Amino acid sequence: MINPIKASGPHQGVKLPDIKPWSGDHPYACHRHFYPADRGLQVSFPERPRLITQVAVVGAGLSGLTAAYQLRDQEVVILEADARPGGVCKSGEFRGCPYPEGAAYFLYPVDRHWQNFYQELGLDLEAALIPEPVSCLYYRGQWYPECFHASGIRQLPISPQGKDDFLQLTQQLAAWEQETDDFAPVNLEWQSLDQVSLKHYLEVVQGYSTELAPLLDPYCRSCLGAGADQVSAWAALYFLMSECSRETRSCAFPEGDARLAAALLAGAGPNRLRTHQVVVGMEEHPDAVRLLVWDQLQEQPYVVQAEQVILAVAKFAVRRLLTGVAGWTAATFQSFQYSTYVVAALCGVKGLKIPGFENWIVGQTAFSDVVMQPRRSALGDPRVLIVYAPQPFPAPRQALLRDSVQIKAAEILTGLEKIWPGISRGVEEIRLYRYGHAQVVPYPGFLSRIRGRIPWRQGRIILAHSDLEGLPCVEMAMLSGCRAARLARQALRG
Ligand SMILES: Cc1cc2nc3c(=O)[nH]c(=O)nc-3n(C[C@H](O)[C@H](O)[C@H](O)COP(=O)(O)OP(=O)(O)OC[C@H]3O[C@@H](n4cnc5c(N)ncnc54)[C@H](O)[C@@H]3O)c2cc1C
User: Fold this and answer.
1) Which residue did the predictor score with more confidence, 173 or 46?
2) In terms of domains, do 449 and 323 share one?
3) What's phi and psi for 258, nearest 5 deg?
4) Which domain covers residue 401, as residue numbers?
5) 462 lines ligand 1 (CB under 6 A)
6) 436 touches ligand 1 (CB under 6 Å)
7) What is the model's pTM?
8) How confident is the model at residue 38 (pLDDT cuts 50, 70, 90)?
9) Mean pLDDT of the chain
10) What are the phi and psi torsion angles at 198 (to 5°)?
11) Which of 24, 40, 73, 397 could form a disulfide with 433 if both were Cys (CB 3.0 to 4.6 A apart)?
12) Same domain as 446, residue 332
């Protein structure tokens, strides 16, 4: 069905398919509590708790769900503000074709412990292995498969010096990856590499060609929330290690990392999850923590009392919740900065050949990469092209709230038309997701500011969330969830 709306301004002339209203974050519920001066909603603690539990997990993203899963033998309640669990790992469906609305892939764990963990969750890692080519680069009108490996790099239309430098970089990263013990790279010395940007590291520290940073820019924007000149060299090199390694393999389920969230929730016990519940306040007492919860369905507050609380939410929310509680202060979390993100699901795309799983686009500001679900299909089967459009960093969040779906869709379609002329004609429907605080951005110096400096627990309150590791990925979310569960268990035993 073709929507009669046509874009105005620079995107004029692009005929738009049926465009659904914004989805993704639903910020209003949190905003009206955390900015009561603006929005006029202030609630106070009712006298008696409605619910008493051993552990309350706040946030049903991967970190919170992992914590709840690890504590499944305890009394656990999961409070989630959104209508659905998963955080940024949710999935959509178009005519029976599942697709990720956010996170798409994860790494095949090399470590036996993590392999067992996935197996215990019933996740078939072998079936999820992504067939090659995994990563392809679109550069100056051509696709380059296996762009992080020698075979792809040799084909790139860059100078001989640029190719040599790129090869040297990827070989070095692959070697570091081999020496990496679990999550701790031995030779990737983080303190100094964290002080400079990836671009600075490549061009000034290593003296590599200036052709490299633009090639790695879409990867940085998509995976780390900001450009090669804005992210910490350590963070970027740490992420790129697995892309360049021949041993590390990537995995994806049709619905993306939402499969991980679903498996964790199934293991934790789905009846422990309470959706539409926004935690808006906390009080620490000698024998328990009292959480003030706003029930969005009933439009009323109530109290959950817990012996231990795991705050598996990003620090922009933690900052507001912890004011005056435990030993943290708002200033502790001031260094956390977040990117904004738009994801577009183009449903019903027809006749499109997609070269790899992750397809990185160089030189396109409207988006950074695309994933097709399913990658191969019979003619006429429903397919969804997922377009990742990280927004410029830093950018005012208001812009994201202000932009209309028509404008965003037109911007994305205009960019796609340059790669696949005529693509807009085959798209039936566009679904747009926006994330106001999508991922923590490891800007230069950030990791040095947080590592070892923020206590993971104080009193009865424990912090989780991938942002605490300074690196936005599903592995870090699960790692922080495991650690939080361990701390909660110790305290419950003690
Ligand atoms: C578009 C996108 C694509 C990505 N792609 C990948 C990928 O392919 N591979 C990869 O490894 N990583 C990817 N990432 C990063 C990765 O998905 C995240 O780092 C990870 O999933 C975060 O999990 P989390 O539990 O730490 O946080 P979140 O997912 O942010 O979960 C936090 C939860 O807390 C809830 N919450 C917040 N405030 C409150 C409150 N006051 N009360 C109750 N609940 C609250 C939120 O609604 C949310 O459900 C991607 C991220 C984005 C945004």
Assistant:
1) 173
2) yes
3) -60, -25
4) 2-27+339-435
5) no
6) no
7) 0.95
8) low
9) 91
10) -60, -45
11) 24
12) yes
